[in-house]
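Researcher: Going back to the complex we discussed earlier. I've cleaned up the inputs and rechecked each line, so this should be the final set. Can you rerun the prediction on the complete assembly and write out the structure?
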Amino acid sequence: MFTGASQFAFIGVVGAGGSAWAGAATAALLGTRNALYGVRLSSLLDLRSWRLPVTAQFVIDETTAMTIAREKPADSRLAYWATAIALFSLWNLGTLIGALATHALPDPRVLGLDAAPPAAFLALLAPRLRAREPLAVALAAALIALVALPFVPTGVPLLLVAVIVVLYGAWPR
Amino acid sequence: MIWAPLLVACAACYAIKLAGLSVPRRFLEGPRVQRIVPLLPVAILAALVATQTFAMGRHLVLDVRAAALAVAVVAVLLRAPFLVVVIAGAATAALLRLVL
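Model: Rerun complete. Updated structure for the full complex:
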């Protein structure tokens, strides 16, 4: 699962005591945007034969941003693969270090590590809020999740919010 | 058991990417898909921010994480980079726990 927000969300749901299936559903829903990135990338990259399944693994926010910003197709391909290789190796190296280092940490709360995920989610969210509608959707989603929280199993508020936003987006106007 | 859901999530995330690259454009360029898909991460990330800050299990609580989020909001408004936002939030919670 090489798509950071989905990794964080899966761990967030499981770490808060939710079911791993709710975490999986949240991770997949967060990953849906990568399909739209793929649509934009498909005309810029070389996707013949075996390249398609290999390329697919690295379709994320950062590789898309770097690729579509280039003028020439050759530059686009170079940007895609350079970003993919750099991010994939460093991200997984960081994950490995983190996994090994947790054994050295007595209580993550002392370091404020329980406050790190909300800050991280906020930082991922902020660039998507540059218009009025997404800002309103974000505030409504936060409110709905908190109101639902005491009444449903942990992790389910996220899925509830996802269903509501799909219905909202599909509403004919 | 965490491995089955984890593997399913990995497969789903990969399949979504593969579909984006290979499914004919017209399936993913409908107006509804174009509207809904960008709003999904907005809603889910916002709900994650809220629940990870104000929830303790299935209870709503107000603790140092709320102050940490406030500091993170300020960092975001100042256009601080990702890592600075995360560290600012964590450091706020750590310092307040030390003091209180």
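Model: Worth noting: The two ends of chain B are 38 Å apart (CA to CA).
Researcher: Good, that matches what I expected from the previous run.
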